[in-house]
Amino acid sequence: MSRTTLDTPPTAPDAHTPLSHGLKQRHLSMIALGGVIGAGLFVGSGAGIAAAGPSIVIAYAVSGLLVMLVMRMLGEMSAAYPSSGSFSAHAERAIGPWAGFTAGWSFWVLLCTAVGLEGIGAAKIVTGWLPGTPEWAWVALFMVVFCVANLAAVKNFGEFEFWFAALKVGAISLFLVLGVLAVAGVLPGTDSPGTANLTGQGGFLPHGSEGLVVGLLASVFAYGGLETVTIAAAESQDPVQGVARAVRTAMWRIALFYIGSMAVIVTLVPWDSKEVVEKGPYVAALDHLGIPGAGQLMNVVVFVALLSAMNANIYGSSRIAYSLVERGQGPKALGRVSAGVPRVAVLVSCVFGFVCVLLSYWRPDDVFPWLLNMIGAVILVVWIFIAVSQLLLRRRVEREAPEKLVVRMWLFPALTWVALAGMAAIFVLMAREPDTRVQLYSTGGMTLFLAAVGYAWQRARAAR
């Protein structure tokens, strides 16, 4: 593929493909709103609180700022060039086919593995409600339901996510209202904790800077799912405006749902309470308030969040795979489309996810941990591709088609470089921590392997 071809892509790379445009604006708006409330927030934040204590609020604020910058860069490119390949297509356009190949297939592996992990998490909750039932059977049931829904039509994915997101947004909004009332001391039957939990039990930084670093790394990976809206936008009725609206509201959504809820939790509940990790921080906070049944209700919300993430990741992985094949970077069979849906890609993504589930039972001590380590830092690799692509594409778009800059990165290029520096700093911090060092090296190995394969593929195509 020549550089000229990359410089002059059609306005919407998927415009001439048989994918449908069945997502309505209400679907896209709710996907954007609910996508930020992921399973990582409900499930993974407890470990971050245990490591960082009350300073987890600082950790989420710092990582949240980085995510806002990444979303702004991705939104700028996705509004200019809507594509189901999202950042993978942008990386190919800006850097070259090998970059799109590397970013796309590494993200596909991440999403497919995450489908299995979220299925296991949801199954654990159900087996807590129905003891004695096999976990793998529940995972299989969830996989079949969402696979069938995604095979039928894209509007099914949109409807599932619309109602899932509505429940998540309603639940976390209610949690924030109750939490703020309790902190203020006006919730009936509760006394305001004041600053006792923020300054007691070792203070605001109970484990010092090392604890804050661990909390920061945990918070970075809790923001997964924000990319889905830019993938889904290509199948909406108005991709450009849909992306623009989602990106412009990202700041307050992250500030409210992530940073706000962490502040409420560590103010209400002692950070070293074992329930924060065992039950999850949201359930622990509601139980602490003594609201009858509230903790169990939050378990239902966590269950829905996991199912929502499963549904979104099946969708996202199939569209990334489809886009890669459409651009000549994968097996042609994955690109077959029927009734506006890349059904082979949906099936293969689901099968890969279920194989990951089986590996968690068959090879829990070697193959499965290796797979988890391999995807551990993929999201950071993707963010680097996004930042580098935006640096290169922005100048090109300003020169050739400035009217496409519906969304603009703030203070370009200064904040893009700041974001890249932040990502480099996270890599350094990961290399310092024993628990994350293995993830960093494993992801690095997979990335280098994919880059080499992508470059060889690029050279072979050029030779032909």
Automatic annotation (TrEMBL):
Subcellular location: Membrane
Residue ranges of every copy of the Amino acid permease/ SLC12A domain listed in the record: 27-439
Alphabetical list of PROSITE patterns matching this protein: AMINO_ACID_PERMEASE_1
InterPro entries the record matches: AA-permease/SLC12A_dom, Amino_acid_permease_CS
Annotated GO CC locations: membrane
Keyword terms: Amino-acid transport, Membrane, Transmembrane, Transmembrane helix, Transport
GO BP, sorted A to Z: amino acid transport; transmembrane transport
Membrane topology: Multi-pass membrane protein
One Pfam family cited in the UniProt record for this chain: AA_permease
TM spans (from-to): 28-50, 56-74, 95-116, 136-154, 166-187, 212-234, 254-271, 291-310, 344-362, 368-393, 405-432, 438-457
The keyword Transcription regulation appears for this protein: no
UniProt similarity note: Belongs to the amino acid-polyamine-organocation (APC) superfamily. Amino acid transporter (AAT) (TC 2.A.3.1) family.
Descriptive protein name: Amino acid transporter
